[in-house]
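4.2 Preliminary Data

To establish feasibility before requesting continued support, the project team ran the inverse folding procedure on a target of 375 residues. The structure was first converted into the token representation described in Section 3, and no sequence information of any kind was made available to the design step. The complete token record follows.
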């Protein structure tokens, strides 16, 4: 059984009167299964946060859970339990050891940092514990606090942020994203989705230059994966020639968005003929062009494809050759950006972006849309 544990703790004074709160939810429905909270006397925020984690893990174990997704708004606890930060405070080590012992009793435990607004239930329980201990009027945990906050559909399973300190690359997978080289439609600024348009002569030269840039990033490329369309597979082949002939694997779900009736048209032409539909499309990733595919649908299939790729080449260097929409969606979620990002980021033909991804979902974006190799 897989569950989610949301945990928090706090103190009024740091150190001061403290309390913790933990909520165990079903996965993926988010139904509350167990709540735990308690006062801790006078101690620090960090001790309270670790206590919330320990109590949440104990509750999950008592329920018979085998997999746990831990979600906390404490960056310190998440980073320390993920092994990226050292535990320098001697007072926290016994609690961290207790948490680690509990973690070892599950088949799988992941740690994810979440914003405080997505941890309202655990926070409310911690405050309830402190209020009860102080004899203050107790604020009831509201129904909206107990609802698992919906996160935007993401191509990544976890939204864990990168450590502020330079993380070790020992078990990270390096993902090098390359947009295909120029085509005639690219040059004219036309929507180019499922149409199999070949590279132009300029696009061939750009793809070779992108191969040189990829080789500059890493000579030890593990795999090259590509959209099935010819403009991408040809770009991938030319990159392969620059990095020792690594085979190209076609991944169908890396294909571009289906723009439906807008295929081959410019933005101005679409806006002139479908102004209402264009406004709706720009305003929501759930809206598809007439006869086409929404960005939410693209994110779902690209996410599934990306997870398969990452599982297939753990710790390697993977070059992913695709189109504007899939690459933008990957970068949006890697940067924890809003949907507005999709319409503000420009990706050049044969532009290169690089990010590192750890097994626990931690992500470090190294570059976005590099184009110096094209000059």
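Position-by-position output of the design step:
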């Amino acid at each position: 059984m897989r569950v989610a544990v949301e945990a928090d703790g706090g103190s009024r004074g740091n150190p001061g009167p403290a309390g913790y709160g933990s909520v165990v939810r079903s996965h993926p429905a988010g139904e509350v299964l167990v709540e735990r909270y308690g006062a801790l006397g006078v101690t620090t925020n960090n001790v309270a946060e670790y206590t919330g984690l320990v109590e949440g893990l104990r509750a999950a174990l008592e329920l018979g859970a085998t997999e746990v997704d831990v979600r906390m708004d404490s960056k310190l606890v998440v980073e320390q339990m993920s092994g990226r930060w050292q535990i320098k405070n001697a007072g926290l080590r016994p609690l961290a050891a207790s948490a680690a012992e509990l973690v070892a009793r599950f088949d799988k435990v992941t740690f994810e940092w979440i914003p405080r607004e997505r941890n309202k239930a655990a926070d409310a329980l911690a405050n309830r514990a402190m209020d009860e201990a102080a004899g203050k009027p107790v604020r009831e945990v509201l129904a909206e606090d107990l609802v698992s906050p919906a996160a935007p559909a993401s191509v990544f399973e976890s939204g864990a942020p990168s450590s502020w300190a330079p993380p070790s690359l020992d078990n990270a997978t390096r993902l090098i994203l390359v947009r295909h080289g120029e085509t005639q439609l690219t040059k004219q600024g036309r929507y180019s989705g499922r149409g199999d348009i070949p590279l132009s002569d300029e696009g061939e030269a750009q793809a070779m230059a992108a191969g040189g840039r990829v080789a500059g990033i890493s000579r030890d490329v593990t795999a090259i994966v590509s959209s099935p369309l010819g403009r991408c597979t040809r770009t991938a082949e030319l990159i392969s020639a620059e990095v020792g002939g690594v085979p190209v694997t076609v991944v169908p779900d890396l294909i571009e968005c289906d723009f439906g009736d807008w295929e081959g048209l410019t933005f101005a032409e679409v806006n002139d003929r479908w102004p209402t539909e264009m406004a709706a499309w720009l305003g929501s990733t759930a809206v598809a062009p007439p006869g086409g595919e929404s960005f939410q649908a693209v994110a779902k299939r690209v996410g599934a494809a990306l997870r398969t790729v990452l599982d297939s080449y753990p710790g390697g260097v993977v070059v992913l050759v695709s189109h504007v929409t899939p690459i933008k969606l990957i970068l949006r979620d890697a940067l924890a950006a809003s949907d507005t990002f999709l319409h503000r980021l420009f990706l050049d033909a044969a532009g290169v972006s690089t990010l590192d991804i750890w097994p626990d979902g931690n992500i470090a974006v190294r570059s976005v849309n590099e184009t110096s190799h094209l000059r």
